[in-house]
Write a structure and sequence with these properties.
The structure holds two protein chains of two kinds. Chain A is α+β, with helices and mostly antiparallel strands. Helix content of chain A is about 40%, strand content about 25%. Chain A has four domains: about 100 residues, Rossmann fold (3-Layer(aba) Sandwich), CATH 3.40.50.20; about 70 residues, 2-Layer Sandwich (Dna Ligase, domain 1); about 240 residues, 2-Layer Sandwich (D-amino Acid Aminotransferase, Chain A, domain 1), CATH 3.30.470; about 40 residues, no CATH class. Chain A has 19 helices and 22 strands. An eight-stranded antiparallel β-sheet of chain A has the order 13-12-9-10-11-14-21-19. In chain A, strands 3-2-1-4-5 form a five-stranded parallel β-sheet. In chain A, strands 7-6-8 form a three-stranded antiparallel β-sheet. In chain A, helix 4 packs antiparallel against helix 5 and helix 13 runs antiparallel to helix 14. The radius of gyration of chain A is 24 Å and the shape is globular. Chain B folds into two domains: about 90 residues, Glycoprotein, Type 4 Pilin (2-Layer Sandwich); about 70 residues, Beta Barrel (OB fold (Dihydrolipoamide Acetyltransferase, E2P)). Chain B starts with a strand and ends with a strand. Classes of the chains: A alpha+beta, B mainly beta.
Chain lengths: ~500, ~160
């Protein structure tokens, strides 16, 4: 087993990985940019190394600097987390060249699954169903020919893409040319490749994915599905296991699981990975892509299977065999995860970095919080606005929903805006309760609902609190310049000056 | 003690007849009510009103106070008429429109200069945070009076970035 592992990441996932490594008795090395000197992953690690300025191209995405840090600290393996270098085949190769174990799949598997079109071809060869589409980047003529043959609407997607960048829906032939131009220019900026391919558009699809785990000895199992249909800007915000649809049609877990395993095996896959499917309204499923790393939303799978995916990743990377068979995988209860973002859901989900002036975390039965924030921390504006993942477990979907609402009510973050209140609205929604989910759910939700009205008396309480607060502050200010400083005000506010 | 309030944009007033913790108060023209108010944590007020318990967190921002209770946010500006002289004249003189940063971030582009004539909806500045760019647009036609930020500057939410006359 490894003695020391470097985590080539930041934020909540670096903290998540370190927790397991610590439980396994493995030393941890953090890397950090200028913006992250006081971030939790640095404070928590056994060792830490500065790897450059705040822009991620010069720090977390710099293969050389990450490897230098690993050599300097004598790490034997690197866990890449998700994002950053996690799906970069060159990085995985550079780790192997430097004599470090890359905790993930082989370089070859990353290459086969990294390009969306190459992944599609692998899936087709393995007999997994795919959405009808071109298997390569297209010219305008090719796109037009595909749409004429297969019918509108179609979806344009970036060959090198992800996260909705370079994606366009086209409903009519007239809109194809400009949509293709926009998509190509966006893809060019985001991925340095303007190549676009075309797919038939699935209306109101669900996004359901299968968690896979394989060892280096040819064993592979699936750990069931995750429902990830709730998205904004093509990014997931809430996930569940089981999927409400699969719970209704349990045979889907086996058929999707087997299709995922076939596709992954075709790429010689090992370690943890996820195959994403779109599911149409007739419950037909289509291979979308494979993520060759740990997923953000892995905790819901851990909660219902009782497994620690990071621990299994590390053991597999060290050469261990899978410690269980497919038949031994059991699912119990229902887990839901909300991604808590520093953003304003009522202003187009615009990011909202800044200093946390107060933080109260949800606790109590069935609550798991994977976060990277603390009271007084300034959320850097350079990175993804994910603050924490709040996951709950209960016996049924109904109980899990109630538990999540309860936990969100306990969650209090001041100083920045978050989507905590928005999740409560979604969880109360009748359509959500019925499990009628699809990737356009949030957009539709905004169209058919209005902002929630506060219960009676809440405005009166708010006015009273504001008045009491202002008076106490004015009194502190009047008491002189020393007392007017913020710390003096805080002290006096506490000790009864508000009387 | 009478205070003028603006709650989520609507004018109101509150009269505090007795101070915390045993508050008696009147909101607008409503009846006199009583509540018990304590501050167990910095910026957090525990309010007991008609037998119900509320936890109100008060946050000071550039635009005034933000009070959050049970997930609901109230933006509240409090004015003490007796302190009018100190607080008046801050902003809001007729005919001048301010454009504030909707989120904290970095100014990546400044598209106008003082003296420029702009149309309603015309882009003025671009603010970026967490890889998302947001173009701030003129809320009405007019002439740019001031531009308060340079390219590359870091701004906080609510900060005035431009004024239009």
């Amino acid at each position: 087993m490894f003695r020391k592992v470097l985590i080539a990441n930041r934020g909540e996932i670096a903290v998540r990985v370190m927790r397991t490594l610590r439980e396994m008795g493995i030393s941890t090395v953090a890397v950090y940019s200028d913006a992250d000197r006081t971030s939790l992953h640095v404070r928590m690690a056994d060792e830490a190394e500065h790897i450059g300025p705040s822009p991620s191209e010069e720090s977390y995405l710099s293969i050389d600097r990450v490897l230098d840090a690993a050599r300097k600290h004598g790490a034997d393996a690197i866990h890449p987390g998700y994002g950053f270098l996690s799906e970069n085949a060159d990085f995985a190769a550079a780790c192997e060249d430097a004599g470090l174990v890359f905790i993930g799949p082989s370089v070859q598997s990353i290459r086969m699954m990294g390009s969306k079109t190459a992944a599609r071809q692998t899936a087709i060869a393995a007999g997994a169903p795919v959405v009808p589409g071109t298997d390569h980047g297209v010219t305008l003529e090719e796109a037009r020919a595909f749409a004429d043959t297969n019918g509108y609407p179609v979806l344009l997607k970036a060959v090198a893409g992800g996260g909705g960048k370079g994606m366009r829906r086209v409903d009519r032939a007239a809109g194809l040319e400009s949509a293709l131009r926009d998509a190509a220019s966006e893809a060019g900026r985001a991925f340095r490749s303007p190549e676009i391919y075309v797919e038939r558009l699935i209306e109101q699809p669900r996004h359901i994915e299968i968690q896979l785990l394989g060892d280096r000895h040819g064993n592979m199992v699936h750990l069931g599905e995750r429902e990830c249909s709730l998205q904004r800007r093509h990014q997931k915000v809430m996930e569940e296991c089981p999927s409400p649809l699969v719970a209704q049609y349990p045979e889907m877990r086996r058929t999707m699981g087997e299709a995922a395993i076939r596709a992954a095996r075709a790429a010689g896959y090992y370690n943890a990975g996820t195959v994403e499917f779109l599911v149409d309204r007739d419950r037909r499923f289509y291979f979308l892509e494979m993520n060759t790393r740990l997923q953000v939303e892995h905790p819901v799978t851990e909660l219902v299977t009782g497994l620690d995916l990071v621990k299994l990743q590390v053991e597999i990377a060290a050469g261990a065999r899978l410690p269980f068979t497919q038949e031994q995988v059991a699912w119990r209860g229902w887990a839901i995860e909300c991604r808590i973002y520093a953003e304003d859901p009522y202003n187009n989900f615009l990011p909202f970095p800044g200093k946390l002036t107060r933080l109260r975390r949800p606790l109590g039965p069935g609550v798991r919080l994977d976060g990277c924030v603390y009271d007084g921390w300034t959320v850097p504006m350079e990175y993804d606005p994910l603050l924490a993942k709040l996951a709950v477990w209960a016996d049924t979907r109904e109980d899990s929903t109630a538990r999540m609402i309860r936990a969100l009510r306990e969650y209090d973050v001041a100083g920045i805006r978050t989507n905590i209140g928005f999740f409560r609205q979604i969880l109360e929604d009748a359509e959500f309760r019925r499990g009628n989910l699809h990737t356009g759910f949030i957009e539709e939700f905004f169209a058919r609902t209005s902002a929630p009205q506060p219960p009676q008396d809440l405005a009166a309480v708010a006015a009273l609190a504001a008045a009491v607060h202002s008076l106490a502050r004015n009194r502190a200010a009047d008491a002189g310049p020393a007392a007017a400083s913020s710390s003096a005000w805080r002290e006096s506010g506490r000790s009864g000056l508000l009387r | 003690m009478k205070l003028a309030l603006r709650i989520n944009g609507a004018e109101d007033r509150i009269e505090l007849l007795s101070p915390a913790p045993h508050c008696r108060f009147r909101l607008g023209d409503g009846p006199e009510r009583s509540a018990h108010v304590e501050a167990p944590e910095t910026g957090v007020y525990s309010v007991l009103l008609d037998g119900r318990s509320y936890d109100a967190s008060v946050e000071e921002t550039a635009g005034g106070l933000v009070v959050a209770i049970d997930g609901f946010r109230f933006e509240i500006a409090v004015r003490d008429p007796r302190r009018w002289s100190r607080q008046a004249g801050a902003r809001g003189s007729g005919g001048v429109e301010t454009v504030a940063a909707p989120m904290p971030g970095k100014v990546v582009r400044v598209l106008v200069s003082p003296g420029d004539t702009v149309e309603a909806g015309q882009g003025l500045l671009v603010v970026e945070a967490m890889k998302m760019q947001n173009e701030l647009k003129a809320t009405r036609a007019g002439r740019i009076l001031t531009v308060g930020a340079k390219e590359g500057a870091t701004v906080s939410a609510g900060e005035i970035l431009a004024t239009i006359e």
